Amino acid sequence: MRKMMLVLLAVVMCAALAGCAKPPSPEEQAAADYGPYPENYEQIIKDAMVSKLFDPYSAQYHFQGSPQQRFLSRPPIRGGGVTYGWGGTVLVNAKNRMGAYVGAQPHYYLIRYGQLVEFEDASMVRTQ
Residue 55 forms beta bridges with which residues? Predict the structure, then answer.
């Protein structure tokens, strides 16, 4: 019983600390600086993946449309604030250490002024 109460308390404290990130208003979004459209967005993603994948040259990329103006709101526990840029989703399938493809994994990216500012598992990121 005591152990269950401690687990419940830990869950409640984590939820309270994480909080919810407040999305920007439509006026703030309209006035935001997203930077120029990244014409070379595919190459930016591929270059970033060289250091993240075991066998980056085996990777297969399937971009889900072209980048759109997006923002990423971070909760206070992750530093807070809003980052604007051009973002979208890409499916990445690459080989693991055993030489087998792991299957297409969705990732969210955000590019601002030609720099990749965010690249995460799409299931872990909430965007607008």
Answer: 95
The pTM assigned to this predicted structure is 0.72
Q: Give residue 22's identity as a one-letter amino acid code.
A: K
Residue 126: enclosing H or E segment and its boundaries? Answer: none
| Residue carrying the six token digits 């990445």 | 92
Residue 112 lies in a domain: yes
Any domain includes 10: no
Number of separate domains in the chain: 1
What tokens were used for 104? 């297409």
pLDDT (tens digit per residue) in 57-114: 899 999 999 999 999 887 766 667 889 999 999 999 999 899 999 999 999 999 999 9
Q: Which domain holds residue 59?
A: 21-124
Residue 94's closest CA among 122, 52, 123?
52
